[in-house]
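Why does residue order matter? Because the sequence determines the fold. Keep that principle in mind as you read this record.
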Amino acid sequence: MITKCLFPAAGYGTRFLPATKAMPKEMLPVLTKPLIQYGVEEAMEAGITEMAIVTGRGKRAIEDHFDISYELEHQIKGTEKEKYLASIRNIIDVCSFSYTRQIEMKGLGHAILTGETLIGNVPFAVILADDLCVGNKDSGVLAQMAELYKKYRCSIVAIEEIDINDSSKYGIISGKELEDGVYMVADMVEKPSPKDAPSNLAIIGRYILTPDIFEILRHTPSGKNGELQITDALKTQAKNNMVIAYKFKGKRFDCGSVEGFVEATNAFYEIDKKKS
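Structure:
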């Protein structure tokens, strides 16, 4: 049912300077794969094969990564090293990729609206590559959300419990629990102070959105920091229709921060060791 996934990938990655001065933050590697490849693989696990990527200046490496490198493949063909390209070749064979540019950085809502030309009038997923997620033993986070969409047929945001003192880093939801870990959203607040936070349930970088979100975004005024916030648009959508928040099964690593990136690298190294 969900066949398209949007990747907002136009940000500068300033917390990783100088590494991101000439390299997109989405291409930072956790072990041997860049962050955005983990996101694409998660989308594929959810049955999605059409990847739509919103890029910006200096992001050509993303397009090159999801393309065939004839020179490199010729050099390593028939050698032991050829196996290292197996995962990315499978992605290229199975998926299609489309790109558009976000000319100005005006927030996540603006990035998603920029992607409308790639998505069209269909429900779609959104993955923020900064949030590297590991699902449970049965399915990844986006696959869990796709199953939930089949039941509720409305926009869904992934949430996790946080320390209330960190509320100013996240969009925070409040709502009524419909079933275990599933909430009907009543309100959303973008980056509130701890005293103003309606709960400790924070939105992370996984969404399934219905296409009416584009029209809502077009009529949503700029919010915090003068940016177009997806939380403001979702709040409108929740009032007019229904938005679900889902406490996913798994673990999220905040790879937008150095600390979270190191934590993810160590965790994935341990996972990789157990496989080998």
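Residues 258-275 form the longest helix (18 residues).
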